[in-house]
Amino acid sequence: MNRDAAPWREDFRGGSREAEDRLFRAMAQAISPRPAARPDAAPVGTDRADRRLFHAKTAVGITDAALMVDRALPAGLVVGHFRPGAILPAAIRFSNASAIPQADGVPDMRGLAMRLAIPAGGPHDFVLANFPTALARNAEQFLALAMAAAGDWETRLARLASRIGLWESRRILAHLKASLKLCPSLAHEHFWSASPYLWGSRPVRFELRPVAGEPPPPILPAPGDNALRIEFASRIARRSVTYRLALQHYCDERRTPIEDAAVDWRPRAARPIEIATLVIPRQDISGREGRWALEQIDRLRFNPWNAPEDFRPLGSLNRLRRFFYAAGDQ
Questions:
Q1: E strands of the chain, at which residues?
Q2: Superkingdom of this entry's organism (predicted)?
Q3: What is the sign of the dihedral through the CA atoms of 71, 187, 258 and 34?
Q4: Which run of H or of E encompasses 79?
Q5: CATH 3.40.50.300, domain 13-131+179-326, yes or no
Q6: How far apart are the first and last CA of the chain?
Q7: CA-CA distance, 43 to 229, in Å (whole number)?
């Protein structure tokens, strides 16, 4: 650990990683109709992800983006393939968060998944959403949410409250109300990791911010099932779309907790540091090649555990998600 870094730790359920793995495998089986596979058996290739627990609909798929690392990258952030001036090929999937494919004009959260092709071989996946925190604080709340969502819609709040209490259930509903919104343009959305990840020896959260100067979005979303794709196609036919990648460092367990994904890491406590630019080049995504790219991206299974050890996900919510991804449900 860096001499100047704040001390941190992960708290494993049952007192050890092995005990927690057994518990989380059982939790994944409680939701998945298929047996939870070993996490190290999760494919990272192009098996069609047609049984996602969330983010069912691919709004836009890009196969030829690039993440351009800043030449002035601070020395403390030089880790693995993140080197000053590095250019990393990237595949991008924009999605609607709903588990059921629906029209883009429906209020919803939006996701951005990014797969980097790294020099050492293999992928490095980033999974983000356009809200700074997660619905569930931890693994137990994620299980309760998934179980409630799978049952009768009219009794979901009562069933959720029976598992996590009325106060936390109301907090989650308030979070949903705030996060389910209309989206005029994906190019103007701000995306966050919402949970921590390792960056070398230090925990971070990361975000992708739209670059200032992007042409303004329409006042209201366009009508139609694929309005986001149509708007993005019109925009990217004229110019590249860019985002800035920024990191926030862990500072202490109260303001930047590892095990509570519902706490916002506020900039006052953890100042975001920009380190790279994501460039989606100008192109035609409405033609034959664009439709081919959409199909290729839709077949990918983005998984935050597809990462070198120096960038592994942290916290119980991420550790449980490892088993859901392994079972092919996300």
A1: 57-69, 87-96, 110-117, 123-129, 191-192, 197-199, 202-210, 241-249, 273-280
A2: Bacteria
A3: negative
A4: none
A5: no
A6: 32
A7: 28
Q: Per residue in 12-27, pLDDT tens?
A: 999 999 999 999 998 8
Show the 3-state SS of 286-315. Answer: CCHHHHHHHHHHHHCCCCCCCCCHHHCECC
CA nearest to 194, candidates 304, 307, 74:
304
Burial class (CB in 10 A: 0-12, 13-18, 19+), 276: buried
The ranges assigned to domains in the chain are 13-131+179-326
Q: Nearest to residue 28, comparing CAs of 317, 285, 230, 308?
A: 317
H/E stretch holding 8:
none
* More confidently predicted of 275 and 323: 275
Query: What does the DSSP 8-state code read for residue 181?
Result: B
Q: Tell me if 146 sits within 8 A of 329, measured CB to CB.
A: no
Say how many residues make up the chain.
330
Can you say how many angstroms the Cα of residue 209 is from the centroid of all Cα atoms in its chain?
Answer: 14
Distance CA(298)–CA(307), nearest Å, equals 20
Closest-CA residue to 230 (of 182, 186, 166, 199) = 186
In the block, tokens 């209309």 appear at 182
> Taking the model in full, what pTM does it have?
0.89
Quick count: other Cβ atoms within 10 Å of Cβ 165? 12
Whose tokens are 């953890």? That residue is: 270
Q: Which amino acid is at 118?
A: I
What is the pLDDT confidence band of residue 147, given thresholds at 50, 70 and 90?
confident
Q: 73: which 2 tokens?
A: 């990258």
How confident is the model over 151-202, as pLDDT tens digits? 676 788 888 898 999 999 999 999 989 999 999 999 999 999 999 999 999 9
- Taking alpha carbons only, the member of 228, 232, 227, 257 closest to residue 243 is 232
What is the rounded average pLDDT for all residues in the chain?
A: 88
**Separation of alpha carbons 276 and 71, rounded Å:** 9
